[in-house]
Amino acid sequence: MTQQDEGIFSARPDGSPPPEFAERRKESPLAPVTMPSGDEAVLAVRYKDVHAVLTSPAFSREALLAPEAPRILPGEEFGEDPNALTNMDPPRHTRVRRILSDIFSPRHVKTWHPKIVAITERLAGDLLAAGPPADLVAAFTLPLPIQIMCELLGVPAGDRERFRTWTDMIISSTAFTAEERVAAAVEFSGYVRDLIERRRDREGDALVDALISAHDEGERLSEAELVHLTVMLIMAGYETTASVLARGVLSLLTTDQYRVLRDEPEIIPTAVEEVLRFGMPGDGGLLRMATKDVELPSGTVRAGQAVMPSMASANRDPEVFTDPERFDVRREHCPHLTFGQGAHYCAGANLARHELQVALETLTRMVPGLRLDVAPEEVEWRSGLLLRAPLSLPVAW
């Protein structure tokens, strides 16, 4: 792996996308890149190319399950499970995705609003009661999404530390070995199987009950699909949202825009889209393989080539976003690709947006004087994980 390629896959001290992305957008928007595994892929960095890859049916996820297919990381990965929704192509993907689309519809998310508000206000109240100084990650941004997901899924909240350990290991890039990542995935899956069996004989309206019904009554999910979907819901609903929220609050505090949301709460939905654009916690999207020669706006991808569409780079493309390196809660045109696009658009996007909106509204209302208690450059960042977020956020008020 060249020094330039290594920079693309290395965490920046401040969590921002590597500067190589900007250079590649200008000079080599579809150039080959050597991944940490040693395999090659085409790195798409311009918005128009990334969008085209995400939406074109000519790019397959299932094709990457072949033993000889390129990998981002060396060794066996939990993410290579054929029962993962992210690894399915139509028509199987369409069948499973339809179930999740119904579960996470705006109508259902609206019914969860009271629970989300109650959990958020309780955590903010605990933060205030403990008094400053505080670590906002430990007290608020990390426990919030996992408590919400535990409540919605019908999972005991006391198990959330186990989820954190398993999730951190599974999404590790360098902090754990491939064998340790797979072992964590096996333990996590075993826990979920036990959870499913415990809930099978009871009436319930939790998310896991809806997934069990899709398997037991309609046979729309296989047992393996049921287990993997539940694991992925816990992981995605916890780690991704927690990372985006922590990065978003940090951006608000370091740009003096926290007070803007405090004084103008009506713009919080707009601000959340900017938080999602600016604070995407990972650099790249899932690999795809071209099933035929594909003409993209910036060039041709040949059949059999793997492509890595970088949504983080697309979100900073100056051809789409005015002054893209500036965090602006009033940004009106913000067609970010943080949730992806096309068939694999994030199924939980409605819930994630709602959680972020409630979190920022509650925090700015209940803790109006929140401020960072260290210099921005002193904020510690998590390392060795695919998702990049502050390890802690020392705050006061």
Can you describe this structure?
This protein has 397 residues and is an alpha+beta fold. It has one domain: Cytochrome P450 (Cytochrome p450, Orthogonal Bundle). The chain is 48% helix and 8% strand. It contains 15 helices and 10 strands. The protein has a 5-stranded mixed β-sheet. The chain has a 3-stranded antiparallel β-sheet with strand order 4-10-9. Strands 6-7 form a two-stranded antiparallel sheet. The longest helix has 32 residues. The protein is globular. 43% of the residues are buried. The model has no long low-confidence stretch (mean pLDDT 90).
What is the structural class? alpha+beta
Q: Please list the strands of the largest sheet in the order they lie side by side.
A: 1-2-8-5-3
Q: Could you name the ranges where pLDDT drops below 50 across 5 or more consecutive residues?
A: none
Average pLDDT across residues? 90
Strand portion: 5-15%
Q: Give the biggest sheet.
A: 5 strands, mixed
Task: Please give the domain count.
Answer: 1
Radius of gyration: 21 Å
List keywords for this structure.
48% helix; 397 residues; alpha+beta; Cytochrome p450; 15 helices; three-stranded antiparallel beta sheet
